[in-house]
Amino acid sequence: MRIVGVPTFSLSAQAIALIKPRRGVFLIDLSSSIHEITHSLVPSNNEQSATLYAYPLLESCREGTIDPEMIYDLPGTEELSPRKKFEQLERQRPGGEINQLLSYQSDFKCFDIDLSPDENKTAFAIDLVREPEPLTTILRGVNSALLRYERRALAGDRVGVFGFDDRIEGPLRIRSTLNASKELSLVRPDHFDGEFREMLEATTGPFVKKDGTNPSHIAKFLFPQFLSNNDPPDGEDPKPIGTDIGSALTRAIDILDPDSNEFKSSENFIVLFSDGKSNCVKNNGSATCNGGDALTHRTSISNALNSLKGSNSPLERLVENGITLHTVLVSDSVQPHSLLKANPSKSGCLDDLTSRRMADAGHMGYEFVNWGDGFGDERRRVTPPYHYANRFYEGSRATGGFWTPLRNPCIPGTNLLDPSSPTGLEGSLHRSCMKKPAGSTLSLNDLEDSLKTIFQTYNYLDNSGRLLCDPYGRDLRGQIDDFIDLLMGQNPIRLVGRG
């Protein structure tokens, strides 16, 4: 199995003949980064339409086209005004138009979603042409894991799925104050269990339906809603949705219930799909999110990440209770990466498992992630910080969990770390690492000329040795599939050792 710089590895020595029940929670960040590949108000691709996947509406659905005046707007800058961005879309998609970078007002359909039988519905205009990425691929990966769960289900197996943004319960509600849950809590993975069937339906495709019924992932609020649900203080405008990862991890731990007998007799894990930008800090029950300037934004994320540590913090509780945290880091904006280094034996590039073993043995210089401030690419500093989010590697390392930074393939379909390829691009990173002293970090000048040109063109390697592309040539789906295979293929699901 190849995943995130781990071509082959051994799992924990605790993997013995006795197979233990597995209890796991899939935790999905539903802030705007989870659909930024296809939908963004500020797209990185100049040829792509600036749009959201789902626009909250001020009124219930009605027949005909969606009037931009129905869209619940975010007052303030032109750049973040959903209503203005929707108004700028061409009204009707031309017949035969298949350009997936472009959106049109006619691509969107209004859905009324029930909060509860006793409450008004909440309406959203949702894109029926382009499925949100990477969210769609993530949900399909979770669905694959659920099916794998069911195929080898033990009596004590339990699984849960829930989404979060700046809060861990409830969708955006314009009229209602009811907490409609985004949570599908721990259930037995069995088709005869109605809640498990709901879980499967909410994570399976197709994710859009043109027949007027609600897609299951939308009915369960597993989609990005953009605007914060926290009531702003008098005189202040609503702000874009934040990401309260600390509360989400705390809730996931509580769901697993460390005090229960079931917990103590099982392997317990959490899978976190997120951009890691924990930029919404809870103060006395309310949310104080990042400000608009770079320094405030950067400081707030750093403070939020620091809050994950310390006495009775989520990370401390994970370690103390033996809960494994697997992190799948998404979003180019935070530069998910691994460090490109020569391994201790000078036989190739450093992998994650070797890095952890060296660190556990007290050897310095074999770090696998660099979340510090050594920015090598100034172009990527437009909206800092980019590297703080990679600190979640610490949580996965401390608990023996997998680290999976989702990245574009360096060269689609080409394994740059293949040790069996003597020539060509295949295996070229492996050969470059073999030429370097043990523990040293590679730079552009260390690469073979054919690869150096490609990496320089696409900024795939910065001055600190951060590798910003997938060296195995896998697309997004391939990386998720490999991660799920790794996660569900063994018991217990944990890398050797805990930091």
Detailed description of the structure:
The N terminus is likely disordered. With 499 residues, the protein is an alpha/beta fold. The protein is built from 13 helices and 15 strands. The strands form 5 sheets. Strands 6-5-1-7-10-12 form a 6-stranded mixed sheet, sandwiched between helices. It has a 3-stranded antiparallel sheet with strand order 2-4-3, with no helix packed on it.
Compute the average pLDDT: 80
Assign an overall shape: globular
Computed structural class: alpha/beta
- Please report the distance between the alpha carbons of the first and last residues: 22 Å
Per DSSP, the total helix count is 13
Q: Which runs of at least 5 residues are low in confidence (pLDDT < 50)?
A: 1-17, 170-180, 283-287, 374-384
From the alpha carbons, calculate the radius of gyration and give it in angstroms. Answer: 23 Å
Neighbour order of strands in the largest sheet: 6-5-1-7-10-12
Reading the helices and strands in chain order gives EEHEEHEEHHHHEEEHHEEHHEEHHEEH
Main pleated-sheet profile? 6 strands, mixed
Number of strands: 15
| Helix percentage | 10-25%
Which oligomeric form is depicted?
A: single chain
